[in-house]
Design brief:
- The protein has 4 helices and 22 strands.
- By secondary structure, it is mainly beta.
- The chain has 4 domains: about 90 residues, no CATH class; about 130 residues, no CATH class; about 160 residues, no CATH class; about 140 residues, no CATH class.
- The strands form 7 sheets. Strands 2, 15, 19 and 20 form a 4-stranded antiparallel sheet that branches. Strands 1-21-22 form a 3-stranded mixed sheet.
- Strand 7 and strand 8 form a beta hairpin.
- The chain is elongated.
- The N terminus is likely disordered.
């Protein structure tokens, strides 16, 4: 018997002149398959749209532009290997103050238009057999009057094309039972996030509301703003359940003798369901949405008066859901009486770190040059963007801006209505604990959850908003899997020359498995022969200073 301290090679080495191994046996492995969506390539490009638009003869001359609205709708993506052709339209609307006939009163007027575009996006991969998605949004929109009968429309549109593919990973899970060599097997459990839903669909929202008492009937609808806020999603057995709130604002010409300018603002809750094949209520959803269609109509009520407003929205929903999954994989294999040759590869998966929603409160005081003439705030609209990310010890720091437009009424007959724009910076931190900032994978979607504008002190308009940062974060899970495995029996003469027993003193760095594998025995044999090891599992590290008696596996027992 020899005594060995871990890490020391005290066993006598033999040089054997004849062949040590006689036959080679290939072991048959059994595999589990894992399907994973991965991004093959993605590219973002910016395009500039520029055009002039003539005011139709039916509309009055432009006195001043109050506010505008823009929406990008893509009609489709055509892929040809490493190029993607994106076609779509920029739909815009303008609210301006029109000059009255023969010096009459100034009235609000709406113009609608559209700019068509076709853009080729270069890709860094062959996207022919991938799932291609396209997202487009307005980075900047500027609409100005050229003269009283013409406007200039300029927009910067960002287009992102993403190509995803399904990769099938084989994970060794077991070996065939009839192997004869009685291999020792070590298994390990791995937790990862399995994407079980990846789809896009449209959600149509139809809601109606009525003007409250005290408001005149609607003669003509002049302007509308509709925003989707406080959206929550959850997976049910029936599919994806969506709920939220529509923030609706309308401006109209009243059906009274004076033809007064009226407005009405309200919030309407909504719910909807999207059919999802194989929906699992226990899965974790991460859903993005983008408004691609909007229509508001004035309807008569039960008395035949134009007091009902019908709102219809189309939301393009990007639906993904994940399940916490566990995989038991074959980590290692050996035979005490032979040599095991293995070919291994790494499987790359990801584990869900956090799924949360971070709130950022922002505020600003907007100074007006003509504040003295300010009578009333009509409404406020905003959009939010992310400018930069940074991994900090507390998590992911997000920096961006809220672009606010405030529309108001004045006492100046020459400029009865006006608006002011403001850019409000914000910073928020998505909390992530104990993460590797070099390898973290995340998606963060910003949206406006609350928005108010009020007449403040010191000739300023006070704006307050709540920005929601909807985040999901993953960390990589990499583990080796055995692709091929062959067993080479040990030469009996050589094996007989090895010590039959070894006294082992642990240095606290090796597991039971490591020790058994090195000294031609098994973990079960070590536990059977050593009381101090009885409660140690195969993967447990043997405490430092523990003394073990290691007995070489008998060749006769293996035959």
């Amino acid at each position: 018997m020899m005594v060995e301290s871990s890490g020391s090679a005290l066993i006598k080495q033999f040089t054997v002149s004849k062949h040590l191994y006689q036959e080679v046996y290939e072991l048959e492995l059994k595999y589990d398959n894992i399907h994973e969506y991965t991004i093959k390539c993605s590219n973002t490009t910016q395009i500039t749209l520029d055009d002039d638009y003539n005011v139709p003869d039916s509309k009055t001359d432009i006195d001043s532009i109050i506010k505008d609205f823009g929406l990008v709708v893509t009609d489709g993506v055509r892929v040809n290997q490493d190029k993607a052709q994106v076609e779509g339209n920029l739909k815009y609307a303008v609210l301006y103050i029109g000059k009255g006939q023969e010096g009459g009163r100034l009235i609000p007027v709406r113009l609608d238009g559209s700019l068509h575009f076709v853009e080729n996006v270069n890709l860094s991969c062959d996207a022919s057999d991938t799932d291609v998605t396209c997202k487009a949004y307005i980075e900047d929109l500027t609409i100005k009057p050229v003269n009283s009968r013409k406007i200039s429309v300029k927009a910067i549109v960002s287009i992102t094309v993403t190509c995803e593919e399904i990769k099938n990973a084989k994970v060794a899970a077991q070996i065939s039972e009839d192997e004869g060599c009685k291999p020792q097997l070590l298994f390990k459990d791995y937790e990862y996030a399995q994407m079980d839903v990846n789809m896009r669909d449209n959600l149509r929202i139809k809601e109606s509301m009525s003007l409250p008492n005290g408001k005149t009937d609607i003669s003509e609808l002049v302007w509308d703003d509709v925003d989707v806020r406080n959206v929550s999603t959850r997976m049910t057995e029936d599919g994806l359940s969506v709920s939220g709130e529509l923030s609706v604002f309308i401006m109209y010409i009243g059906n009274d003798a004076a033809g007064s300018v009226q407005w009405y603002e309200t919030a309407v809750p909504f719910t909807g369901i999207i059919d999802v094949s194989g929906a699992d209520p226990d899965s974790i959803c991460y859903v993005g949405f983008n408004m691609t269609g909007k229509n508001i109509d004035v309807k008569p009520d039960y008395d035949g008066n134009n007091r009902d407003i019908a709102v219809e929205l189309v939301l393009d929903m990007d639906i993904r859901s994940y399940k916490d999954s566990k995989k038991t994989a074959l980590w290692d294999i050996y035979v005490p009486l032979g040599t095991m040759n293995k070919k291994q590869s790494d499987v790359h998966l990801k584990k869900l770190l956090i799924r949360n929603n971070t709130k950022c409160r922002v505020s600003d005081n907007i100074k007006l040059a003509d504040y003295i003439n300010l009578l009333q705030i009509v409404n406020a609209t905003a959009r939010v963007q992310i400018d930069d990310y940074e991994c900090v010890p507390e998590g992911i720091e997000v920096r961006g801006a809220v672009m606010v437009n405030v529309c108001y009424i004045t006492s100046d007959d020459n400029a009865p209505m006006g608006s002011v724009n403001s850019v409000i910076p914000y910073t928020g931190v998505v909390a992530v604990k104990e993460y590797d900032k070099e390898n973290i994978e995340y998606q963060i979607r910003p949206c406006i959850e609350q928005l108010t504008a009020s007449m403040g002190s010191n000739a300023k308009i006070e704006v307050k908003a709540v920005v929601s940062l909807d985040a999901i974060c993953f960390e990589p899970v990499d583990f080796p899997t055995i692709d091929e495995c062959e067993y080479i029996p040990t030469d009996e003469e050589y094996y007989a020359s090895l010590p039959s027993m070894v006294g082992y003193i642990s240095d606290g760095r090796c597991s039971m498995w490591d020790i058994a594998k090195k000294y031609n025995t098994t973990c079960d044999a070590i536990r059977s022969d050593n009381e101090k090891a009885e409660r140690l599992s195969d993967s447990d590290v043997v405490p430092c200073g523990t003394r073990l008696l290691l007995i070489k596996e008998s060749m006769q027992e293996q035959k």
